[in-house]
Amino acid sequence: MKKGSGLDGAQAAVSFMEESGSFNCGRGACLTAEGKVELDGAVMWGKGLAGAGVGSVTCTYSPVSLARWVMENTEHVLIGGERCADYARLAGMRIENVQPSKSSWAKFLVLKKEKSHAKALEMVRKLNMGETVGAVAVGSDGIPAAAVSTGGRWLKLPGRVGDSAILGAGIFADSRTGAACATGTGEEIIKCALSFKACEYMRETSGPEAARKAVGFVTKTRGRDTAGIITIDIRGRVGASFNTEAMGRAWYDQGKGRAVAKIR
Fold first, then answer.
1. CB atoms within 10 A of CB 75
2. Which residues are catalytic?
């Protein structure tokens, strides 16, 4: 960040994507097996390992903003379910009856036509329907931060909470090393504590190498088509790695003085 905190920057990027309706988060989120929207999100700031996550949110399209409030106003690091609405009110957030977008509902109807749940999930995988959104940044104060938001997995069981709500799994930030944010199969990312592992690798290597090592670990232990990750170390070096066919990502290239985007 040229100015301001990394947490403000990461949250702003994620909030923009939540509101856009173009991604699997916020207004464009995927649907549960019952055809409903349940959102997860989290924020983490490297100073003092501050952070919080929220899961199965149905009262706002911006779980990342609610997670920020939980981090700054409670002692807790994970809140989920119906009571999220109470905290959103305390935060002064607009309470909304979260509904599927037209695009997500159309996809849901196609998937529900598949009599086999396994075939439906295979269709999801082939169509790349399910990318979590996240951002990592280092503030002008040198402190790294991460933010993440998602609708989770298509056709997930109601009440399922994925890695995005869980510090150390979906995101992690440590002022001694850097920050990381993961996407992919949440259950496998949780089992590997993937974002924490990436930040631990940054104790001895750069952000780009830490991303490669973290994805190498999850590939070796849990298989391919499981995860991707973005990283930034405290020197501002950005990294990304994935064991899926593709992963959309973008970053600001300090040397070129412009944004760069890639898919593969």
1. 6
2. 132
